[in-house]
């Protein structure tokens, strides 16, 4: 478990939950219960919408609180004078690098985050919306969070449009109530469009990083794909787990433990 004490990240996390709770409030109270009071679709939409909210919250909390793949610090001070020596600690010397800030060796694809103040394995970027780095151990949950936000935004837009196209004839005709419902619907429509487009752009970028095996940091450094001939499904399975692809959507499904139980710093220093 990890929590970064970054003011910007904490504010972004609070804004995220405020936006989700507001969407849940508007959809449940002002759209479903106000425009579908006598329809069998009302309980269906309430359960379906809140199920997405629940899965979104689970994925987001795991992305926020899980260790993204922090490289452990050595217990004793390391002498870097042997960096160019013949001893390579069982690894290719050109793959392992040295971090002068953490004062430790770091494995391939690990980079130092100035906000987390640690080196992160397969670091893609530091995301303020989860107040954490997107790395080897939480990228799956970050991707799930993006997908559920996109689904929630599309679902909200769908319910708003349905309530406008098929208005309830038996509903209350109170003018103040109708104006309040319209105001909340418009605000939610703007929120869904804004967050939906923003999340789709990030999700496309994440899928490109996974399928082409090149993190955002590596793209900036113009290193190119890490493994050129690696199959796309194998790259996706490394992030989402070795289970059935249908289980990749569940935040409660753990990653491949055999892969992630390998010590992050397995050689003597």
TrEMBL record:
Residue ranges crossing the lipid bilayer per the database entry: 12-33, 39-59, 145-166, 186-204
InterPro entries in alphabetical order: Palmitoyltrfase_DHHC, PFA4/ZDH16/20/ERF2-like
Bilayer topology annotation: Multi-pass membrane protein
GO cellular component: membrane
Signal peptide positions on this chain: none
Similarity section: Belongs to the DHHC palmitoyltransferase family.
The name this protein goes by in its record: Palmitoyltransferase
Organism: Anopheles dirus
Lineage: Eukaryota, Metazoa, Ecdysozoa, Arthropoda, Hexapoda
């Amino acid at each position: 478990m990890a929590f970064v004490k970054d003011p910007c990240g904490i504010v972004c996390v609070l804004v995220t939950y405020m936006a989700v709770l507001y969407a849940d409030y508007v959809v449940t109270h002002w759209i479903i219960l106000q425009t579908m009071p006598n329809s069998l679709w009302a309980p269906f939409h309430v359960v379906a919408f809140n199920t997405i909210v629940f899965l979104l919250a689970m994925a987001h909390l795991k992305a926020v609180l899980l260790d993204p793949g922090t490289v452990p610090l050595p217990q004793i001070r390391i002498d870097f004078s042997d960096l160019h020596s013949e001893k390579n600690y069982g690894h290719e010397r050109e793959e392992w690098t040295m971090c002068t800030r953490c004062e430790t060796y770091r494995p391939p694809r690990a980079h130092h985050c100035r906000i987390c103040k640690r080196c992160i394995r397969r670091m893609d970027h530091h995301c303020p919306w989860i107040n954490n780095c997107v790395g080897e151990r939480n990228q799956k949950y970050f991707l799930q969070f993006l997908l559920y936000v996109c689904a929630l935004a599309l679902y909200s837009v769908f319910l708003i449009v349905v309530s406008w196209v098929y208005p309830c004839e038996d509903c209350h005709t109170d003018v103040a109530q109708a104006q309040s419902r319209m105001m909340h619907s418009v605000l939610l429509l703007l929120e869904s469009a804004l967050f939906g487009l923003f999340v789709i752009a990030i999700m496309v970028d994440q899928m490109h990083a996974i399928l082409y095996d090149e993190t955002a940091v590596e793209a900036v450094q113009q290193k190119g794909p890490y493994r050129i001939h690696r199959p796309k499904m194998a790259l996706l399975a490394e992030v989402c787990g070795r289970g059935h692809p249908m289980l990749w959507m569940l935040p409660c499904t753990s990653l491949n433990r055999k892969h992630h139980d390998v010590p992050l710093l397995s050689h003597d220093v």
